[in-house]
Amino acid sequence: MSDKKPKNVFREGPISSDFIGNSIYKHQSKTSIGAHNIFLGQVRADDIDGKTVSAIEYTAYEDMANQKFHEIRESAFDKFDLTCMHIYHSLGSVKAGEICLFVFVSSPRRKVVFEALEYIVEAIKADVPVFGKEIFEDETHQWKVNS
Predict the structure, then answer these.
(1) How many CA atoms lie within 13 A of 77 on its CB side?
(2) What is the pTM for the complete model shown?
(3) Kind of pairing between the strands at 47-48 and 51-60
(4) Could you please report the per-residue DSSP string of 44-101?
(5) What is the pLDDT of residues 35-70, one digit of tens each?
(6) Which domains, and CATH codes, for the chain?
């Protein structure tokens, strides 16, 4: 693992399609890349006990979470032949249908990006201290349990 300083992966509110599209666009000049893979986590309008989720309010232990994201990133670079990797996660309110997690990996070969992306997303869900409070249409709330 490198001695790089952990990057702040957090963005306030939802991650926009413009931001995602611009991230992809910026990689056109990197001609050693043969494949990209993207994971977009979207807030679902789950029905829980007869109430519908209208948004999730994300909070995190930011320093600890950024350190965990960094460790996952470095581990993925050690494990897979990746050219680039970007991770962004929302803080604050994200409405149902909006994007809250954006993971983007690039490699010279396609098989690598599929394996790497699954590894990264599963590690994020298991290890990163990000918390979501589900806000229901009636404005009640509860802490989200990852599934």
Answers:
(1) 12
(2) 0.92
(3) antiparallel
(4) ---EETTEEEEEEEEEE-HHHHHHHHHHHHHHHHHHS--SEEEEEEEEEEEETTSEEE
(5) 999 999 999 999 999 999 999 999 999 999 999 999
(6) 36-143 (3.90.1170.40)
